[in-house]
Design a protein that fits this description.
single chain; 371 residues; alpha/beta; seven-stranded parallel β-sheet; 12 helices; globular
């Protein structure tokens, strides 16, 4: 099946966990259980088939470095779980736009010089899939990069809450170019959103209404620092709120907006890449007797999503192999908080497994024989 050539926009903690993870599991046996990935071999592609072609960033301490060195450069602070040898992959000067917020600019200095030729680099490196890890709130920067990706002819995995795959305009643009996209806003392996959705569905499955609920998150990575700017937080709150509320509305029920709060809450520097989540659900059971649930979850934020991104990358490559275009509905619903169409998580997983079975190795091989 060959390799999957991947470029990364934003060489932060999530990029670090992704690059480390690909190297860590590159020789995993195909029958091995790997935390956080659906299959070691997904549709004919092993984790080790992912190879990186380029990184794009604006931090002067990362631009120009080998990707293997840049992922461990401050302010990156996620856990180092794997030594990554030099990859021969350069981090290029990216576009700033609104990618550098008020608080991030206090700890990051922009690299000098002009923006690199993104389209040219993606073409020259024969990149298949581009992964977007820009900071939350990078609306204009993301849209600018999407234009470069479309022109270069690459698939796109949008891991941040800027609405691309979930917007008809952008879906149509990818369809017109004959390119696949998975988005928006990565859903971690077992993170705040997936836990909150699961608990909500448990209550509804057992005939108990959701009267009031909140999800409060604190962390010490640059994402949480960035979201101290409340205006940059808006899309994140929308994405996380819809991910939970959609499960209630799918049952034909509703919950007043004032009775729901879902979103990042504050920056605690010493937490670094550890995220602490507090979830509360207020309900009633038989006889309208009140019941309350309080949950505390502590996770290392970036590794929690890296395995999901590995699966999304491989699904995008299957789509490229089979000439699929536009948003991939099943994989987007399973991997992302704000997909084009919401499903319950078991439904989304089933759709993704069907996608893999339909477009995996056998399908790709038969297409090759037909040609």
């Amino acid at each position: 099946m060959g390799k999957i050539r991947v470029a990364i926009i934003g060489v932060g903690n999530c990029a670090s966990a992704l690059v480390q993870g690909v190297h860590f599991y590159k020789n995993a046996k195909e029958d091995e259980f790997i935390p956080g990935v659906m299959h070691v071999n997904l549709g004919g592609y092993h984790i080790g088939d992912i190879e990186f072609t380029a990184g794009f960033d604006i931090d002067k301490n990362k631009v120009g470095k080998d990707l293997a060195e840049a992922i461990f450069t401050k302010p990156n602070c996620t856990t180092k779980f794997c030594d990554v040898p030099k990859l021969g992959v350069k981090v290029y000067r990216g576009m700033t736009h609104d990618g550098l917020g008020k608080y991030l600019s206090q700890i990051i200095e922009k690299a000098p010089g002009p923006t690199a030729d993104i389209v040219g680099i993606l073409r020259d490196t024969k990149t298949d899939v581009v992964v977007n890890f820009l900071p939350v709130g990078s609306e204009e920067a993301t849209k600018w990069y999407v234009e470069q990706v479309l022109e270069a002819g690459c698939a796109f995995v949008n891991c941040i809450p800027v609405f691309i795959a979930s917007e008809e305009y952008w879906r149509r643009r990818f369809e017109q170019k004959g390119l696949p996209i998975i988005g928006d806003d990565i859903k971690s392996q077992v993170g705040a959103t997936i836990l909150h959705r699961t608990l909500v569905n448990l209550y509804l499955d057992r005939g108990m209404p959701i009267i009031r609920t909140y999800q409060l998150n604190t962390g010490g990575n640059t994402d949480f620092l960035n979201m101290l700017e409340r205006e940059r937080l808006a899309s994140k709150k929308i994405s996380k709120t819809n991910a939970v509320v959609s499960q209630i509305k799918a049952r034909g029920l509703d919950i007043p907006p004032e009775n729901v709060y879902v979103g990042p809450s504050d920056y605690v520097a010493w937490q670094k890449d550890n995220k602490i989540c507090f979830i509360r659900i207020e309900s009633v059971h038989f006889g309208n007797v009140p019941t309350y649930l309080d949950v505390r979850l502590s996770v290392e934020d970036s590794p929690n999503s890296a395995g999901v991104v590995i699966d999304a990358i491989r699904c995008c490559k299957l789509a490229l192999d089979n000439g699929l275009k536009g948003a991939l509905i099943g994989p987007s619903a399973y991997f992302m908080k704000t997909p084009p169409k919401q499903f319950t998580d078991p439904e989304a997983k089933a759709l993704t497994e069907e996608f893999i079975a339909k477009y995996g190795k056998k399908k790709a091989e038969s297409n090759t024989k037909e040609k």
